[in-house]
Amino acid sequence: MGLNITGAAVGTTNLNLKTGSVTKSLPVTVESRNLLAYGPVATAVNGITTTVEADGSLHVKSDSLTAGSGVKWPLGEIPAGTYQVTAHGDNPDTVFPWTGIYLAIMDADGKRLCYINVQQRPPQTLTLSKATSLWLVVCGAISSSGKSYDQTLHPALYVSDDVPTAWEKPNGTSVEGEGG
């Protein structure tokens, strides 16, 4: 048995319960529906640095990308189900050009399960038949070697039947990235 609270903004709020003349106020944390996690990478990893903007978006910068190399962040174990991988509101032609980056969801063995680029436009569907440890990867595209890149992304991983109309900042925006 669970309790669903809808319409509340992400963050901390109070849930007021009343029975008869007794009222109890309980603090609750409303979490983002965006299951991704990422964070700043100040020292370049595979030529890429990232910062997290004030709104929680991910700024990716490189003076010289390397095709097939990038940064990855652990997402932990995601339950079986159907998910939507998207870059909410981002123009794929600008954010994911052939000479830029692509965004991927990979399993712990490095198998690319889903990706977004200039051809595989968002949203993309990810179906997991069992709970799976996943990684978010930002990687140099096939024609990106030696090219610079400087864009802000709004990546998201949502349960398919609970996709918000506006992008939601993920709960984890201080996760340490590593080479991927």
Question: What is the terminal-to-terminal distance?
Answer: 40 Å
* Residue runs with pLDDT of under 50 for 5 or more positions: none
Structural class by secondary-structure content = mainly beta
Order of helices and strands: EEEEEEEHEEEEEEE
| Number of beta-strand segments | 14
Shape: elongated
The fraction of residues in strands falls at over 45%
Please compute the radius of gyration using only Cα atoms: 18 Å
Quote the average pLDDT. 90
Distinct helical segment count: 1
Largest sheet: 5 strands, antiparallel
- Strand order across the largest sheet: 9-8-11-6-14
Work out the helicity level: under 10%
What would you note in describing this structure?
This protein is an all-beta fold and 180 residues long. It contains one helix and 14 strands. A hairpin with a 5-residue loop joins strand 4 and strand 5. The radius of gyration is 18 Å and the shape is elongated.
